[in-house]
Design a protein that fits this description.
Elements lengths: L8 H33 L2 H38 L2 H36 L7 H13 L1 H16 L4 H22 L5 H27 L14 H33 L3 H37 L3 H38 L4 H15 L2 H16 L4 H25 L1 H25 L5
Helix pairs in contact: 1-2, 1-6, 1-7, 1-9, 1-10, 2-3, 2-4, 2-5, 2-8, 2-9, 3-4, 3-5, 3-8, 4-7, 5-7, 6-7, 8-13, 9-10, 9-11, 9-12, 10-11, 10-12, 11-14, 12-14, 13-14
Length: about 450
């Protein structure tokens, strides 16, 4: 366990965020390995199927991840206040709520997956592969929920290293199973999907076992299982706010993906390869925001409000430095990396993916403050403004599909996220300019 209410803020935040960065990069890495193996040993069409439809599974997973992150806020606040009885009660209620949400959402997605893919304008040529891949991925949602809940609990009490170690195990297993199922066993895209969910199961089981063995104070006791409606209400409010925010963002991305799918298979391949690289780069900024949620929650529980202000200021400096390094990296290395991911020498596909990466990286200077402000507000229990900012992003992506993409083609897609980042950051900074959320 790590108490984030003591020590120099920037150092504490970075020490917590670095394992998060490595863990998220590992997740992105095995997604890339998954795609690379599919594109090289199955077909480019299978690669396009994964890219054109992965946002559906990602939306469900992001919703569950948002729930667990929201549930972790009251847990972190109780830890900061030193109230372990309340902490364990929140864990019990969180697990019960998560089971209900996971079962309901997984069943709904399995039932409606084909209509969703049709609505997304998924090309007929890749529809069979897309359905096969998604159905297997959706069957493993419970494993994702197990890992995310355990990881969120550990992070709430300041341990960001254990989830990293569990993910490392998962990555090694995933790569081994990918190679086994796809190459010698010839299971195609189904093998890649099966490898992913088995690896997720291993990471979830490892994280859960570690809590049982090493964190006895977190294991609920008999008296912790008698809960009042207030606990469920607070957790539901915190969890659903985070989940809706991520869900709204991903609904916007689904709508945007429908516009991308309508531009043809070459653009799908270009965007998929560029997006995978961009998502890895975003991890370095996004994880500073996640660290701020725990940092702010713990310090709020401890009543250290000036320390919260200091941490926010110092985190702005951190993400600005990171954004500069990432921009230089993109300018130098985007082309060879995109070419490697897509496994194609088609100049048009590679150039479109590279343009997307380079242009959008220039706007990381807006994305960094966005994550810091949004996660800090969530850690403070302020739910409305982050939701408004996410709704603004949804509106911008709808406008992009209706106006920007018809007018500018793929460049309309490239423009969409930078516009949304700037608008969202402007919305999120308003409470700090005109009201004092830290009170």
């Amino acid at each position: 366990m790590k108490d984030m209410t003591k020590g120099f803020p920037a150092k504490v935040i970075l020490a917590f965020a670095i394992p998060l960065m490595l863990g998220n990069i590992l997740q992105q890495f095995y997604n890339i390995v998954d795609s690379k193996i599919v594109s090289q040993y199955v077909s480019v069409q299978a690669f396009e199927a994964v890219g054109a439809t992965a946002i559906v599974a990602h939306t469900l997973i992001a919703f569950i991840n948002g729930l667990t992150q929201g549930f972790a806020i009251p847990i972190a606040t109780a830890f900061g206040a030193g109230d372990f009885h309340s902490l364990r009660k929140n864990i019990v209620a969180s697990v019960r709520l998560l089971v209900i949400f996971t079962v309901s959402l997984s069943a709904a997605c399995m039932i409606f997956i084909r209509p969703i893919l049709v609505l997304l304008k998924t090309p007929d040529t890749i529809m069979p592969d897309a359905l096969s891949y998604l159905r297997i991925i959706l069957m493993g949602t419970a494993f994702v929920a197990l890992y995310n809940m355990c990881a969120s609990i550990l992070r709430a009490v300041g341990d960001s290293k254990t989830p990293l170690y569990c993910l490392l195990i998962s990555v090694v297993i995933n790569i081994f199973l990918d190679l086994l199922f796809v190459i010698p066993l010839h299971m195609g895209i189904r093998g890649a999907a099966l490898a992913t969910i088995l690896a997720q199961a291993m990471s979830g089981a490892a994280c859960f076992a570690f809590i049982l063995l090493k964190f006895k104070d977190l294991i609920p006791r008999r008296e912790d299982k008698l809960l009042t409606g207030d606990i469920y209400s607070e957790l539901f409010s915190a969890g659903i706010a985070m989940a809706l925010m991520t869900c709204i963002v991903n609904i916007g991305t689904i709508i945007l993906q429908s516009g991308i799918n309508g531009l043809g298979e070459d653009i799908i391949a270009a965007h998929t390869s560029g997006r995978k690289l961009l998502e890895i780069m975003m991890v370095f900024i996004y994880t500073i925001g996640i660290a701020m949620t725990t940092y702010v929650s713990q310090n709020l529980g401890a009543g250290q409000k000036e320390r919260i202000r200091s941490g926010i200021r110092q985190s702005f400096v951190i993400v600005t430095v990171i954004s500069t390094v990432l921009l230089l990296f993109a300018l130098a290395f985007a082309e060879p990396i995109v070419r490697w991911i897509v496994s194609s020498d088609d100049a048009y596909i590679v150039s479109q993916g590279v343009r997307y990466v380079k242009f959008d990286t220039c706007f990381f200077y807006a994305l960094g403050p966005l994550f810091i402000l949004r996660c800090s507000l969530q850690g403070l229990g302020r739910k409305v403004v982050p939701l408004i900012s996410s709704a603004a992003e949804l509106a911008i992506k709808i406008i992009a599909v209706l106006v920007l993409i018809p007018a500018y083609g793929y460049f309309g897609v490239v423009l969409t996220e930078p516009i949304s980042w700037c608008v969202m950051t402007a919305i999120l900074i308003l409470p700090f300019l005109f009201k004092n959320p830290i009170r």
